[in-house]
Structures are given as C-alpha cells and as structure tokens.
C-alpha cells in the first residue's frame, strides 16, 4: 500500500467523521438506555443506580392479556396501510402519467400530494366533523347514511370500521407521496420500450398494464422492504391523534406504539415501556432482515443489501 | 471511487477510530449530564413552572410585569409552561419520570400525586412553610394539618374555600323558559335535561374525556349518581389517579374494619351506570365524551350549545356568563347542588385540597420555588398574577370583588390560590355565590372517616398499573354509558381480575385498617 493511498483513505475517513459522530451520539449512545428495560426504574437513583429486575418488565406486557391483540392489530393495520398505499401510489402514478395537459397534470399532482403535509391533529378534527359532528350527534357521513335511508353509526364507539377508516386516512395522506416516487420510476422507463409496444399495436391500457406495471416492480419491492421494516411501528402520530384514549376503539386500533405511549403517559413506568419498545425493535429488526433475505432470493438485482 | 476500508483504512482501524469516537462522545455526554442546570440550558435565575390549560389572553404583558417585579424583589424570573388540560395528567407525570428539572407543578390526588410521592419525586414542604412569613400567614393551620400524608406535607395546598364540592352549572334562562324555576333535586335536573333535549335541540349535559371517573363512583357523590346525591356519605379510595375505586365502610372507626369493596358492589352504583347508559343512548350526554377535551366542552357551553356542565365550589363558573351572553344575549346561569336536604345535608368531606403546588426534587432551586410561593402570597403580587394588570385587565369592586375588563384568566389554583386573598368576580351569580359561601364553612360538612388516609401504591405498583390500563380501556366507556352495562361490567370485571384486582383489594384492606387503628 503506497503512502498516497493511505493518505487518500485517511482523508475519506475524516470526511466520514461528522456522520459517524452523529450516529454514535444520536443512534448508538442512547442504546445504553435500553438497560432500563431490565431494571426497576427509580427516578431518584437514575438509570444505572436502579436495581435489576430481570424480565419482570417484559412479563408485564405479556401477562397483561393485551399482547396478543396488540400484536395482531399492529400487523393487520400495517399490512393494510402498506398494501393500500402501494396500490394507491401505483394507480395514481399510472393515471397521472396518462394525463397529457401539462398544467392539469401538475395541478393534479400537487393536489394529491398536499395531504402529506396535513398534521394528524388536523386530520383528527376533520374526521370528527365528518363522522360525529358537534357533540357527537350527526356528522356529514351520518347525514349521508340517513339520506340513503340507512341507520346512523356511533363511529367513535364502534371498533369494527376503524381499520378501514384508518386505511382510508393513510391512503389519503400517502397516496400522492407514493405516486411521486412511482412517477419518477416511470420517467426512467426507456421511451423505446413504449415505441416497441406501439409498433406491436398495444393500446394505452395494455401498455400501462403490460409495460409500466411490470417495470415498476423493483421500485415497489424496495418500498415494500422499507415498509416491512417499519411494520412494527404503528404510525403513532396518526392513530393516537385520531383515537386517543378512547377505550372502545382499542380492540381494532391499539397497536404497539400507542400501547407503549399510553403506558408511559399513564403509568410513568420507564422500565415497562422500555421493555415493550425493545421487543418492538427486535421484532422489527427480524422482520426487515427476513424481508431483505426473501427479496434477495427472489429478486437479487433489486435487493437493498 | 475506491471503497475507504479496503484501499486506505483497514476495517480494524476504522472500527478502532469509531470506538474511540464513541468513547469520546460518551465522556462528552457524561460531562454534560453532570450538572442538571448546565444540561438544561436554563439559568437558575429562571424558574420553570408547569401550569395546566392554555396561556391566558394578554399573558405576555402580565408575565413581563411579573418578571420585572420578581427580578427586583427576589432576583429571579419565571418561565411557566402551559400544558393543555387534555394532556396535563400524563405529560406532567412523564416530565417527572424523565427527571426534567422544572421547579413547580400543579399536582393532586386526582392527578399523579400518589405515584409521585411513592417515587420520591416531590420535596416535603411541611417544615419549609414556616420559614416564609407571607405564605404561612395565608395558609390555615387546619388546612396544613388535614393535607398531611403519613405526617408529611408534599405540596402547598391551593384552596379558595374550606371544602371542594362538585355540582352542576346550568342555563337558568332555559330552565325558566321550560317552566322549572329553581332546580334543587336530581329528579328535576333529569327532567330539565330531557326537556332541553326535546324542546331546545341542544346537548343537555357536556362531558369531557377527563371526566368519566367522576361520573358514577366518586366521593362523596358521583356526578350523575342519584343515589349519592341523596346519600352523600361515601368514601372512595384508589391507589392512583386513574386506578380502581374501592368503597370503604362508613362505620370503619367503630368496627375497625374498612372492608373495601369494588365500586360495582356499592349501593346505587349499578343503577347509576344504567341511568348514564340511558342518558348516552337518549343523547342527554354528548356522544363524543370519550374524545372531546374539557376546553372544547367549555367553549361549546359558552357558545350556547350545551345546557349543563360540571362546576366546582370555587366561584369560577360565573366567569362563563360574559362570553355566553355574546352568543345568547338573554342567557342566565345557575349553580345547582341537588343534595337531598340542600345546604343542611352535611355531605362527607376530607377537606383535602384538590390542588397543590409541588416542588420537584430535580428542580433547579427548591428554595427559590418556595420564595416564589411566598411572593405570590403578598396581595399586590397575588392580584397581579391572578387577575392581571390593574386598570387594564381588572378593577376592584368593593373589598371582595373585582370586575374583569379583558379575557385574562390565570389558573390561580396551580400557583397562587390563597383563601384569604381571593376576590370574587363582580358578576358572580346569586346561586354560585350562595354555594361558594356554603363551601367556606367547615361546619357545613361531615369529616370523612378516612379524611387523611392516602394508600401507598408501592407494594402493588405493578397490579395497579395493569388495573389502571384496564380501567382506561373498559372502565371509561362503561362510565360514560358508551357500552351496554351488563356486557361492559362483565368485560371490565374479567380484565381487572386478570390484572390483579384481588391483590389491590387485599392491600387496600390492610392499609385502610392500619389507618383506622392509628386514629
């Protein structure tokens, strides 16, 4: 190894220092705090002075009787969110791609992207107006149901429809965002592929189904793996802003994140919440590793690792 | 471009460099963590206070004046942080648990005080009070004595009357219109609600998401529990604010046994649950009660969309009259306490304050926090913080009233309520004034047999946490009537049994009996 290559390598390492320090300080150093999951946390003694309590904090979660329901909700809701937002993103991207008027295309794109910037709190208020109206009596949706001669629904005490309501909210929020990613992928499809399709006599619909859709598979696969990695993070912001501490909706809406957040807020027990959080991270890590391995096996060329 | 690791720096070298940086970062962090003051980035000259609700209108001007005066008088200033009521209980607990170094906070048994005392997060203030003359002369010795827990005072009681008694504030103009006149009994109240629903098309009773636990099983009366209004002599105890309510025997002192029973076994409770369920189904209670916060209920009431809301004997309900009259010019308010026997009923009272200013053990300066409490016990300072700038926000009316000139409204109960210094609002309604005066006199109440009993949650902390979680999920919907009573109660019983109700009951029995023995 020459002095020159050593020098150039060192300079590259120096360039990496800010990023390395950033991750060490903000991502790795806080990992030490995970020790609290195995301790009977006492504020006056601090994290390291508090006594060890083995797996008692984990037992709290698994013996509560809530674990099974919460795990199931987390998986079901996130699979619904992931599938629906991916499908909506692809569909919207193909539809936007077919729009010829440049101004109209831009306007449509901006309009469907806008909900991405709307705060979950605002979404919660909008939903409340739509579903329950002032003081919980009425709401636009119930007015519409009455108009069609259907019975009204007490939306905020009826857990059944909520996975679908939340999925609808996620699609409204993220559909436009996803479509932009897919649109970018569509623009990278070589023009001559479409020309070949045209020569073969394919209609626009056939070209969308037979050319665009298959060529979006790698992008969808990457987004899917990223989504699977986050499957154990139940989108606290949106769900909590909408559901809050409304216990009647917990059977279908309580996910690990909201459970952890509620436990910490109500009980103030760091040990228990850290234990649930650690469990959540470990399962998330296992899931993302499995997703990457499966993707490598079936589609090596688009694999992330 | 060649990869860094293979071409220049070896993988081992790279890891070594990373490890070195990691250690440096760890040492750096530990150096930062050595001093809480330095770590917070705050100066010890500025005390951080946690207050509930939203900052009052005109707050900046009042705070500037308060800080100018404080700086001159004591050499420090304050930086209060307002936390919305809907989050106050949880966020304040979280801040204590996380070891944040704020100085004072509003706390109470109905918030998190029991947990905070158990976790040694609060500074005992009993012996400190005597060192501060303005503070001690404004706190009744009887008040200090009755608010001790196992001989220690963990917060400065904030009261403006002897007893705190919740009741109803309602639209008297509607009552007059519907032919009721003065409402004095629960039966009349109920009829009023149904008439309002039928003839006025507004929500008869406003309930917010932090009220479920006081609707049915509460001492000495559940707000919507008719049996309690007719028999206001129950003692209810929980291990923590959101936990499970046990009813204790009223004859415990003579028998020596507190005999705690789950709330559903107490007389009248299941009937009250069924009644509340009927109210919910009939639209007497707002159907979004599990979601809506107290400030929304207040604004709905002041906009004329709700006919009845919760009130306390603190003289504050009449403050809604002016904003209400902007929406409904002919509006009138009345405070209704539907006790059987009226003002002679002598309901139970623990005389424990509903609100305390507590000192955080992790605060920057507990001494300055006490100096602040002493400073706001001086009339001029008390009035500035409580009512705003004289001449701008308020003006005195006689010796015991004030006229509000702006919308300034400070949560005095979280910092500066002193019974001897409080002024009444000029427009206090006759009914509120009468019940407020009634609450000033200790002789109008029966001393609760468990007045200064405060259960220690430590031995059953885990069970209490799990039961509290079950109560949020299954208790709150049951209490506001959102679920069928039989089905809801059955589900709740199964959940709390699994969470450790038997352990809680046995521990409550043990501690309450020990308390009775020590009386």
Structure commentary:
The complex is a heterodimer of chains A (305) and B (519). With 305 residues, chain A is mostly helical. Chain A is 70% helix and 0% strand. In chain A, helix 5 runs antiparallel to helix 8. The longest helix of chain A is centred in the N-terminal third of the chain and has 32 residues, at 67-98. Chain B has 519 residues and is an alpha/beta fold. Chain B has 23 helices and 17 strands. In chain B, strands 2-1-3-13-4 form a five-stranded mixed beta sheet. The longest helix of chain B is centred in the N-terminal third of the chain and has 23 residues, at 11-33. Chain B is globular and about 65 Å long. Classes of the chains: A mainly alpha (305), B alpha/beta (519). The interface between A and B is large, with 51 and 60 residues. Chain B: It holds the Pfam family DUF3502.
Main beta sheet of chain B: strand number and arrangement?
A: 5 strands, mixed
The N- to C-terminal Cα distance of chain B equals 83 Å
Strand order in the largest sheet of chain B: 2-1-3-13-4
Please identify which CATH superfamily of the largest domain in chain B we are dealing with. Answer: Periplasmic binding protein-like II
Number of domains of chain B: 2
Record field, number of beta strands of chain B? 17
Structural class of chain A: mainly alpha
Radius of gyration of chain B: 25 Å
**Biggest beta-sheet profile of chain A:** none
- Alpha-beta classification of chain B: alpha/beta
Name the overall outline of chain B: globular
Biggest interface, chains and residue tallies? A-B, 51 and 60 residues
Count of strand segments of chain A: 0
What's the helix-strand series of chain A? HHHHHHHHHHHHHHH
CATH structural class of one domain in chain A? Mainly Alpha
Helix share, percent of chain B: 40-55%
Low-pLDDT ranges of chain B: 1-42
As a percent range, the share of strand residues of chain B is 5-15%
